[in-house]
Write a structure and sequence with these properties.
By secondary structure, this protein is an alpha+beta fold. About 15% of the residues lie in helices and about 45% in strands. It has a 6-stranded antiparallel barrel.
């Protein structure tokens, strides 16, 4: 009797383990991305566990062809192979027992883009659209009283002032000149807040401090810094860099770009990253020398623009295919970056985790620097390395974006797809890149 109980206990344990394993497999299927990209001319396999099955919703033979292996190794799974025949979108349905719809899959067949990876240190200079309000303060008038005209007009920190009396604002100095010309007359101001424009009216106050007319605001019209080139496209000449946007140091707002440029930067020195203190690459660049390209767009997922012919002709690095986010896996990879003068070098890293993301995010994967030379030189990831391209299995899969403050050897990277979505949703042809960029 005791042996029977022992067998029963073992059998129950096996059933429990099998059930847990089965539930885990079902969860994996249900959480599989709703959108799958397949490069034209390539294929992808999807393993489906019994009693589920996968089938096309319509006749999709012109876009994809799907087959499955009925004699799988364990008899419980079917491996569906989907071949990308022509660019387009096909819809598949996951069904329970071949009857009950469970989940839909959108299979997008796209042309795998080829981009030239960067790694070059860049000097980045941005001029804002109008001027950015970084503070709202009181004005001490010539009568000895305190006024706050900007606040009364509804102007807030983070707003952009685009026009004064229908005159487009060029820079901070232009604002001062216009106010002193208008003096104490009521003026009309066009303000942009969160990409929405509105008009307000305000009367400048003559300041006791310098007898100039003021609104009670501090403004900024430009910023500069060091970053790293991620990629450029040889045909359209479009480039992407940084992997994150450029924000104002005081407001934290994404800078609204009027125009900007990237230049060659020479590494001057490197402050090593330490636990609790991020390091920094310090570089030198001049506004009028070695201009590489023009910045057109500043987005949360990088800066983008047009690369000049001179750099493209002189650069000897070859274009490589991009890797889709579903193809990124844990394991070895490398980055390209510059830590000495203007020399782009390859450094080994490890991708610790690749997040299953459906929407753009700067923190797509967790990475760790494993290259001894880079660790010795920088301590890990430092400021200025943002945008360094991440390459795995010969494909450009992303870019470095952030460092862990308490562990400089680790940081985050963004999927290259999220950067490319800022240029050309759904992977349009190269001819459309520039048009999308300028919108």
């Amino acid at each position: 009797m005791s042996r029977y109980k022992e067998y029963k206990k073992i059998f129950s344990l096996l059933i429990l383990i099998f059930t847990f394993f089965y539930i885990l497999q079902i969860s994996n299927i249900l959480y599989y991305p709703a959108e799958i990209k397949i490069a034209k001319g390539e294929n992808k396999s999807i393993d489906v566990l019994f009693p589920f099955s996968l089938s096309a919703l319509h006749d999709e033979d012109t876009i994809v062809q799907s087959t499955y292996n009925q004699s799988s190794t364990n008899g419980l799974t079917k491996s569906y192979k989907i071949d990308g025949i022509e660019a387009g979108e096909a819809k598949f349905q996951l069904k329970l027992l071949g009857i009950i719809p469970v989940k839909k899959f959108d299979v997008n067949v796209v042309k795998r883009q080829y981009l030239v990876p960067g790694g070059n240190a860049l000097g980045v200079r941005l001029n804002t659209k109008g001027v950015l309000v970084v503070a709202v303060t009181d004005v001490l008038g010539v009568d000895g009283k305190r006024y706050n005209p900007a606040k009364e007009a509804g102007i807030k920190t983070g707003d952009s002032i685009l026009e004064i009396n229908d005159i487009k604002i060029k820079d901070a100095e232009h604002v001062v000149d216009l106010l002193n010309q208008i003096e104490d007359k009521k003026i009309k101001i066009v303000v942009e807040r969160n990409k929405i424009k509105f008009e307000t009216k305000v009367t400048p106050i003559k300041s006791m401090q310098d007898n100039c007319y003021r609104l009670g605001i501090w403004v900024r019209d430009k910023t500069a810094g060091i970053g790293t080139l991620t990629f450029y496209d040889e045909d359209s000449k479009v480039f992407g860099a940084l992997g994150h946007g450029i924000t104002d140091m005081d407001t934290g707002n994404l800078l609204n770009v009027e125009y900007g440029k990237i230049t060659n930067a020479k590494i001057a020195n490197i402050e090593q990253g330490k636990r609790g203190s991020p390091g920094e690459i310090r570089g030198i660049f001049y506004e009028t020398e070695n201009i590489l390209g023009e910045i057109i767009k500043n987005s949360p997922y990088g800066i983008f623009g047009l690369m000049g012919d001179e750099f493209i002709k002189s650069n000897k690095r070859k274009a490589i295919p991009i890797g889709f986010k579903e193809e990124v896996k844990e394991g070895k990879a490398h980055i390209l970056t510059t830590i000495d003068n203007n020399k782009v070098e390859k450094f080994e890293i490890e991708i610790l985790k690749a997040q299953p993301q459906q929407f753009p995010n700067q923190k797509s994967m967790t990475v760790r620097i494993t290259d001894k030379k880079l660790l010795q030189k920088t301590g890990g990831i430092v400021q200025g390395m943002s945008g360094s391209p991440i390459i795995q299995d010969g494909k450009l899969v992303g870019a470095i974006t952030h460092v862990f403050v308490n562990d400089p050897a680790k940081g985050y990277g963004i999927y290259i797809e999220w950067m490319l979505e800022q240029l050309t949703p759904n992977y349009q042809t190269n001819e459309k890149l520039v048009d999308n960029l300028k919108r």
